[in-house]
Write a structure and sequence with these properties.
This protein has 7 helices and 3 strands. The chain has helices at about 10-20, 25-35, 40-50, 55-75, 105-115, 140-145, 160-175, and strands at about 95-100, 120, 150-155. The chain has a 3-stranded antiparallel β-sheet with strand order 1-3-2, with helices on one face. The longest helix is centred in the middle third of the chain and has 21 residues, at about 55-75. The chain starts with 9 loop residues before the first helix and ends in a 6-residue tail after the last helix.
Length: about 180
Amino acid sequence: FFYRFSSPFNFLIWYFLYGLRIFRKSSDENLILKKETKLMGKLSSFIYKSLKPKLQNLFLQANKNYSYIELCAKDNGINMVIDSQPNEFIVSPRFSFYADQKDHKKIFKIAKRYKIDLTTWFSKVPPSHLIKNCKVEEVFNAKKISNKIINIPIYWTLNKKEISKITKFLETISKFAIT
């Protein structure tokens, strides 16, 4: 949202919502899990309960958006991280594909022109949270693969114009995608 509707005052809105405890830091979630208390506050519970009857329709729309973008990616020879099968029902907040790390800056620059907020897979492989509780084996391949993954945010709220923008973006960057 803040990327799509950029304004020099977006940080104020973000801090306001953070102050209302609508946004939380990821590390706060881990503290809540350790205390074994409720994960949702009153406002979040209210929003969830009001949306619950509509969730099936939201999931259907999210899957429709994902499937359409996936088809466009396939048509443009873009190698996707998730190779979905006909019997799968994918509802994801992101669409992930592979691109050489040397091309990431070019792809992000093109995305900025289209006003699409891209992300990469993981900044640290393996993730460092609670790493002391794990036995880490060889992670060379995981690092190599995660450095090639780019994510496009996709939601059930995407309209035809936004989906069209994403498909045009995929057509434009298809020359950088790993096939």
